[in-house]
């Protein structure tokens, strides 16, 4: 889009690349991804909407546990054989190696449980981020909030989706892939269109009940 976008009441979405033609609806589940990384719901009676973002989990916790158990069994067997032949110094190094592997695996698996939640209401936009519970919470005035899509600086990088309000900018969906970010742009546009289609008086009244 070359020209300035039309100003809307509430959150506005400015982007340079729209959804690809022929793509599935962003809210439709994709069986190839294992689980839906973008969840969207809208309640017209309460004039509220919510978008939940989650990283893709390629492996389950059971699969990760099986992998670590196999590696520990192989490394432990090799270390035991060497220790039996007198090279017992390999045992502490094997323990350090397995401990480091477990720490890295725990960190990676924990990061896949990160969630970002965007809650839209007639007057405010609430952003929450955390693992298990909100660890970061920010509330913005919806009238002054804007979404922007930053083009990548290099072909190897991904575009950035940012939320800006009164000079403050916050990146959302940083863990999403390129295609998933295109889906997020479409979901945000759909959410904003639904909020804009509501009668202004009905939306404010529903928020005060």
Low-confidence stretches: 1-12, 14-34, 201-209
Shape: elongated
Q: What's the main sheet like?
A: 5 strands, antiparallel
Quickly count the domains: 2
SSE pattern: EEEHHEEEEEEHH
Total helices: the number is: 4
Q: Can you give the mean pLDDT?
A: 77
Rg estimate, integer Å: 23 Å
The number of distinct β-strands equals: 9
Structural class: alpha+beta
Helix content: 25-40%
Task: Give the termini distance in whole angstroms.
Answer: 39 Å
- Beta-strand content: 25-35%
Q: Which strands sit side by side, in order, in the main sheet?
A: 2-3-4-5-6
Summarize the structure.
The chain has 209 residues and is an alpha+beta fold. The chain contains four helices and nine strands.
Task: Give a structural overview.
With 209 residues, the protein is α+β, with helices and mostly antiparallel strands. It has two domains: 12-55 and 113-208, no CATH class; 61-110. It is 36% helix and 25% strand. The strands form two sheets. It has a five-stranded antiparallel beta sheet, with helices on one face. Strands 1-7-8-9 form a four-stranded mixed beta sheet, covered by helices on one side. Strand 4 and strand 5 form a beta hairpin. Helix 1 runs antiparallel to helix 2 (90-111). The relative contact order is 0.20.
